[in-house]
Design brief:
496 residues; alpha+beta; D-Maltodextrin-Binding Protein, domain 2; Dipeptide-binding Protein, domain 3; 3 domains; 11-stranded mixed sheet; 4-stranded antiparallel sheet; 31% helix
Length: 496
């Protein structure tokens, strides 16, 4: 693989000689590009583009911690009454002052039942928004809302005047935000060009221009980094990590994301309606071995539970079941399957790091204990139809974001999600309790018990906290931190 890769790198170097020799622009190779830069659209890869030009009221940093953004501080006046104090002197890209009216407009627009906005569920508990004065806004919730701040971090605040004059759809086409970068040119499927916002409240970006390019093929992304065409690339394929590491002028930045990769069972029908069969599969899969071979040890093996160690709600007392094929065979005999059975793992290709390789490795280990397992790689459109029909196969591979709080991925196992196969009344009750109290101790206790229930009943095989693996040129001098989520934070990046 190495010779073709270097040949491609050389070709790119000829085609783009200037980029490697000048101070700018900062060029990032993105793994996935959506066809939209709308705040209402799906996916954290879309939100990453949105966050270059727009700011939220509060934000997550690269470690998933909540930090001030357009609100510099906040307080709870009661369990259902929050007050946000806005930054003074913030201006929209067109020079218009940012005020509490913009916050009120945005939140009321997002929560309007008629509005199609993918992340509206994040702030669905908001009952009203009140402008106290131009720099102060109150938010009232129907119930105590411990997830309000994390929900608001996914909502870009939009300018009321422009959105009302043009309509949201037109306003989204040429963003006028408060963020660090000014809109330049958006070419779907190709690139997003931006320039520095000299008046950004968080400090002018360290480079004058930014280009985020879509490079969906992993080897091509790596080739662009080798050639000096890009300074940072997302999602370095595991098998190409050595190609980057062996270059003295390049580095690998790996961080565990908040995405938990799991194999989920359809527990509604045999054989996976029997917990002994589900546990047999768990004992059959050598997770540490797959972790080393398919992820090069990056990320982590999940601790027998859905959430990663960095997620609020992680239960420190649980451990992954050990690899024990003899125990797996015994459980199959006990469940009435001494000769095993046939089954299938459905997965997509490229949606998660090494996803097909991981599915194939798990299938091979299942076959070794008598479970004759095939792997079916589904196209995106087929997957979406299966998802809507709640027929994703006897086993399907999926990754769930927590963005720092167990609520955000445990929801998919509740009746409220309308997408669950497994159900447990105690689990659902604890989930509701945890999202309706501001008592962190009570919330942690609820999630810890929920993790115990999942560990016992095994609605899914909890595989890995997936890593995010970036490649970086040593021309990146400072200001870069690999994010746990998919949001690129680039305004402090300096180039040599």
């Amino acid at each position: 693989m190495r010779k073709p890769l270097l040949a491609l790198a050389a070709a790119i170097a000829v085609a783009f000689p200037a980029v490697a020799q000048q101070r700018g622009p900062l060029v990032v190779g993105a793994a996935i590009f959506t066809d939209s830069i709308s705040p209402a659209a799906a996916g954290y890869n879309t939100l990453s583009l949105v966050s270059q030009t727009w700011d939220p009221l509060v934000a997550r940093d690269h470690n998933d911690d909540i930090v001030p953004s357009l609100a510099e501080r906040w307080e709870t006046l009661s369990p259902t009454h929050w007050r946000f104090h806005l930054r003074r002197g913030v201006r929209w890209h067109d020079g218009t002052p940012f005020t509490a009216e913009d916050v009120k407009y945005t939140i009321e627009y997002v929560t309007n039942p008629r509005t199609v906005y993918v992340r509206k569920g994040r702030i669905a508990g908001i009952a009203s928004v009140e402008v106290v004065d131009p720099q102060t806004v109150d938010i009232r919730t129907t119930n105590p809302a411990p997830l309000l701040l994390r929900g608001l971090a996914d909502i870009a605040i939009e300018q009321k005047a422009i959105s009302e004059r043009l309509g949201p759809d037109q306003a989204w086409r040429r963003p006028v935000g408060t963020g660090p970068w000014l809109y330049g040119e958006w070419i779907p499927g190709d690139r997003y060009d931006l320039t520095a916002n000299a008046d950004y409240w968080g400090g002018r970006p360290r480079v004058e221009r930014l280009r985020i390019r879509t490079i969906p093929e992993g080897s091509t992304r790596v080739a662009s980094l080798l050639a000096g065409e890009t300074h940072i690339i997302e999602e370095v394929p595991v098998d190409l990590i050595p190609s980057v590491r062996q270059r003295r002028n390049l580095s690998i930045d790996a961080v565990e994301s908040s995405v938990s990769l799991v194999l989920t069972f359809d527990t509604r029908v045999p054989p996976f309606n029997d917990v002994r069969v589900r546990q047999a599969v768990d004992f059959a899969i050598n997770k540490p071995q797959i972790h080393q071979q398919m992820l090069e040890g990056n990320g982590s093996v999940l601790d027998g539970q859905l959430v990663t160690r960095a997620t609020f709600g992680h239960n420190p007392n649980l451990r992954a079941r050990p690899y024990d094929p003899a125990r797996a065979r015994a459980l199959l005999r006990e469940a009435g399957y001494p000769d095993g059975f046939e089954t299938r793992i459905n997965t997509m290709s490229g949606r998660y790091l090494s996803d097909v390789d991981i599915a194939n490795a798990a299938a091979g280990m299942m076959r070794a204990v008598g479970i004759r397992t095939s792997v079916a790689v589904q196209e995106g459109a087929v997957w979406a139809r299966m998802e809507r029909a709640r027929e994703q196969g006897p086993i399907y591979q999926v990754g769930w974001f927590s963005v720092g709080d167990a609520d955000f991925n445990t929801v998919w196992y509740t009746e409220a999600s309308r997408r669950n196969y497994w159900t447990n009344a105690e689990f659902d009750r604890l989930w509701e309790e945890a999202r309706n109290t501001l008592d962190e101790g009570a919330r942690r206790a609820a999630y810890n018990r929920m993790m115990e229930i999942m560990h016992e009943e095994m609605p899914s095989i909890f595989l890995f906290g997936l890593p995010r693996i970036f490649g970086r040129s040593n021309r990146v001098a400072a200001g870069w931190n690999p994010p746990r989520d998919s949001l690129l934070r680039l305004h402090r990046v300096e180039l040599r």
